[in-house]
């Protein structure tokens, strides 16, 4: 069994509320804009069809939900949820076509088999009980539906990993602190990514959480991020 306990939900809610209005700009600066490419890859992996229904959890300011909305077309439906209302306030200014609702991924207010696709990007490591979050993502998806998870991980290759870890430990918190006024938030984001299970370890966690007929695990950008696609049984 993969042992992992996430952070305190109250602290996470307070942290993201404090940086919500500066979150998008800071992410773009810190990642050089590459996070947009990662999200587009997640949409492609989901193989979304026009008219399908998609749930994006921990949607934050809504970027992935908005990308899914474009993919499903006018006949489709996309719901974006987050348990931080301040983040959703920003998301609503970016799109009126996504249904943004306050909800916790570990207690989703939707019936079983409601959606064709469920997703979470860079949010599962912030969940106190990630197994419960994965279980809920699978529960609300129809049999044969897709659960898409995009999350940071540990890069492959000793030289690249050393360079990336130096950036994460010494540069990312400083820049994040300057741009948002909350250096502690970006220190947490760096340390949480370093300790969260990735690759095969997270695939094991998914299997422990719900019934999947298959799970794909794809390293993105040398393993800085990982893309997981689970097909529900």
If you had to describe this structure to a student in words, what would you say it looks like?
The structure is a single chain. By secondary structure, this protein is α/β, with parallel strands linked by helices. The protein has a domain of 161 residues: Vaccinia Virus protein VP39 (Rossmann fold). It is built from nine helices and seven strands, in the order αααβαβαββαβαααββ. Strands 3-2-1-4-5-7-6 form a seven-stranded mixed sheet, with helices on both faces. α2 runs antiparallel to α7 and α7 packs antiparallel against α8. The longest helix has 23 residues.
Summarize the structure.
The protein is α/β, with parallel strands linked by helices and 233 residues long.
Which characteristics define this entry?
233 residues, alpha/beta, Rossmann fold, seven-stranded mixed sheet, 22% strand, globular
CATH fold annotation of the domain at 32-155 and 196-232? Rossmann fold
How does the helix and strand content classify structurally? alpha/beta
Order of SSEs: HHHEHEHEEHEHHHEE
- The level of helicity is 40-55%
- Spatial order of strands in the largest sheet: 3-2-1-4-5-7-6
Largest sheet: 7 strands, mixed
Integer average pLDDT:
94
What's the topology here?
Layout: H1 9-19, H2 23-31, H3 34-46, E1 53-57, H4 63-72, E2 77-82, H5 85-94, E3 99-102, E4 115-121, H6 130-139, E5 141-152, H7 158-180, H8 183-195, H9 200-209, E6 212-220, E7 225-232
Parallel strand pairs: 1-2, 1-4, 2-3, 4-5
Antiparallel strand pairs: 5-7, 6-7
Helix pairs in contact: 2-7, 3-4, 6-9, 7-8
């Amino acid at each position: 069994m993969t042992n992992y306990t996430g952070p305190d939900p109250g602290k996470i809610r307070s942290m993201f509320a404090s940086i919500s209005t500066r979150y998008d700009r800071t992410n773009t600066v810190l990642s050089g804009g590459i996070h947009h490419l990662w999200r587009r890859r997640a949409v492609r992996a989901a193989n979304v069809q026009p008219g399908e229904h998609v749930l994006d959890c921990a949607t934050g300011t809504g970027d992935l939900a908005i990308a899914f909305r474009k993919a499903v077309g006018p006949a489709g439906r996309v719901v974006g949820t987050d348990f931080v209302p301040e983040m959703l306030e920003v998301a609503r200014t970016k799109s009126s076509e996504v249904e943004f609702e306050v909800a916790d991924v570990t207690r989703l207010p939707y019936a079983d088999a409601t959606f064709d696709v469920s997703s979470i990007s860079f949010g599962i490591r912030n969940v106190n009980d990630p197994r419960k979050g994965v279980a809920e993502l699978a529960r609300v998806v129809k049999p044969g539906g897709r659960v898409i998870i995009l999350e940071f991980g540990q890069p492959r290759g000793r030289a690249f990993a050393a360079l990336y870890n130096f950036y994460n430990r010494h540069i990312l918190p400083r820049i994040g602190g300057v741009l948002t006024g909350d250096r502690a938030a970006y220190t947490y984001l760096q340390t949480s990514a370093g300790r969260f299970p990735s690759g095969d370890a997270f695939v094991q966690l998914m299997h422990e959480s719900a019934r999947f007929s298959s799970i794909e695990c794809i390293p993105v950008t040398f393993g800085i991020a990982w893309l997981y696609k689970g097909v529900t049984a």
